[in-house]
Design brief:
This protein is mostly helical and 208 residues long. It is built from ten helices and four strands. The chain has helices spanning 3-11, 23-40, 62-73, 80-88, 91-101, 126-140, 147-159, 162-165, 171-182, 186-207, and strands spanning 44-47, 50-53, 105-111, 116-122.
Amino acid sequence: MLLADDFFLIAHNDRDGRSRLSARATELGLAGAMLGELVLEQRILVEGARLRVLSNEPPSDPLAHKNLATMVAEIQHREVRTWLQFLGRTAVEEVGQRLARVGLVEQTQVRRLLRSETRYLAADVNLPAGRVVRLRRLLTGFEPMRVADTTLAGLAEATGLTGHILWDRDPAGARRLQQAITTLPPPLRDLILQVESAVGDAVLSQRG
């Protein structure tokens, strides 16, 4: 399960496919997860608020390949926030389609008052819940967490999903999460901070 796939499943209701977050937070979280995939593949490096391409060798995943190729073509854009905004615009569709291609979700159209909305429903409703339970178990137990798991948990915290993962904001789990984030490699810690900052700004702009 790739990082953005996991985030997508955790961020959406397993019954009706609705996001548990605001549209903007969902987009920014998924964009951060897609950048995280490239960091984990050692194709890009995040340094504070900026990033740079380390290798243009195509990743095996087609979406990651496409994202990296775009970054190589637009090498002058080095602000993490720029890429969060850019990738976020199509993140739900891109990751949803990636999951649909392997049969994990099914695309459906939901009629609203004046328009229809595309949603991605889990083919097996137990899958999203299982991903949440798995992450909760890691955060509340003593099993070592992989870097990808910790990054996922950090992105959940940055976007406001932790309450869904840790019921009643379990204090021990919350402490373990914060401790785990501090052990991440600096590029992933910086990425999580950039996502958190972008989500915070989006919330403020909506209130303004």
